[in-house]
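User: Hi! Is it possible to get a structure for several chains at once, not just one? Here's what I have:
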Amino acid sequence: GAGVSQSPSNKVTEKGKDVELRCDPISGHTALYWYRQSLGQGLEFLIYFQGNSAPDKSGLPSDRFSAERTGGSVSTLTIQRTQQEDSAVYLCASSLSGQANEQYFGPGTRLTVT
Amino acid sequence: QKEVEQNSGPLSVPEGAIASLNCTYSDRGSQSFFWYRQYSGKSPELIMFIYSNGDKEDGRFTAQLNKASQYVSLLIRDSQPSDSATYLCAAMDSSYKLIFGSGTRLLVRP
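Assistant: Yes, the chains can be modeled jointly so their relative placement is included. Here is the combined structure:
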């Protein structure tokens, strides 16, 4: 079946602009996670959704970052007033439920802030 | 601060050998552990998960967990050049998010 999809695959934006990243989870997966991976670094947790609610937003690095999920499916991660340090690959993962289930990753969005 | 530690490598092994990748974690509350393989420029791909102490085998891969020592390992038997990648160890915390190590780069020499 279809895996996690993300769009766009690449995004180049100027410093100070807002960007919106999209994630479409595996059908039937109720839990959705956003992570980011800076060049040569490990993955950093950003936010977790169970259904449409976000029980854990602890990883969002600043109030410029926000995310929402509607209809228990698609999620968007919005970064306002982008900074160069926001440049990274943003990865979305989904799992069957918000419990100890395996998380499957999408292909990621590579964000470059110039 | 919950942490997962891995040796960054590279770990270099000849083709056909056993590659042994190790990981330690700090959060004693973690119950589930995952190994992901990541090729350069690609997203992580789940290859193994383990919840119970002991060994879990899947094909050429064996995951080992020792909760008393807070230690997880991944053995890859009959290593192939196509196994060359970065291997990420992750521990799931009590709020179901994954805490990742920085990864071990594996090189399998033909």
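The mean pLDDT of chain A is 93. The longest strand of chain A covers residues 43-50.

User: Great, thank you!
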